[in-house]
Hints:
Layout: H1 3-24, H2 28-49, H3 54-75, H4 83-110
Helix pairs in contact: 1-2, 1-3, 3-4
Amino acid sequence: MNRSWLYVIWGGIIEVVWVSGLKHAATPIEWIITVLAIGASFYLIIQAARRLPVGTVYAVFTGLGTAGTVAAEMLVFGEPFNWVKVLLTAVLLAGVVGLKLVTDSGARERGNA
């Protein structure tokens, strides 16, 4: 895994922080952390998109953010567990992983990996 994919993964993880912050921030410090997380997340995604296909970067970024936010809401913020939501999130992640695999193999075939 190269540095660009690490940027995407970290950007997705930080996305969970700022999305949760948009819902749960109540103090000025929490809002500052939320704004800083937005900036950090988008910086990482922009850096990754300079070296990887932007469509794939965005799909992986939002997929990780969505799955992470669903998990955080259930595990950290006490949202009730819902099997259908977990199943649909797993389907989303399977599509994101498949997209990454197809993109990586296409880049190798062209000699761009």
